[in-house]
């Protein structure tokens, strides 16, 4: 898909990190961008910076997502690009024993479901509603109507200790990539997924510098944390390359995560 001022996009989780970098990259290519996020101040700031539109959206709510698409389309027209970066994480062993007093506890199902609802169901909700809108567009060259990029994680394949819920949520995103691409193949909508490794995003902001340095040193090459701009470059490559469809691509400096 050739990027220009006739194209509009929606980026979920676009107020910070990978999403903000992608929103900036799309805007720099001339695309009209709408940002979906719950961080109103940061989201509006990025939207103002790039000349885009901010929509306060909770991806776990049908009503909120519907309102977001209505507002985005009123401002920019029907999107032909969707990039899903909204997500979060938590960590806890499935079951564990306290070293202090031997107390046994387990990962609450409510916490597991909470993560699944945001990372997996929230992604699917946005994809399904955006794809339905893309079906109304006239086809472009090669019959293309749209391009969707979802975000998983290397944890989908290399889940660490305490990441059962997170890995399940991201593994679900990987698992639905090809079926969704097949669902939409006759409508000219492509679907691909990025599996980022250890990136320098707000999720790592609170980590002490020695922890960040150790994480960076664990990457085979280059020995540093990933940059959000590098995620954005791959997202744009997936959008612009008309033959890329149904793919899951690791972006991780060749890291393979250890158990802990």
Automatic annotation (TrEMBL):
Keyword Transferase recorded: no
Database matches in Gene3D superfamilies: NAD(P)-binding Rossmann-like Domain
Keyword Oxidoreductase: yes
Molecular function via GO: oxidoreductase activity
Keywords: Oxidoreductase
Family membership: Belongs to the short-chain dehydrogenases/reductases (SDR) family.
UniProt-recorded name of the protein: NAD(P)-dependent dehydrogenase (Short-subunit alcohol dehydrogenase family)
Organism: Hephaestia caeni
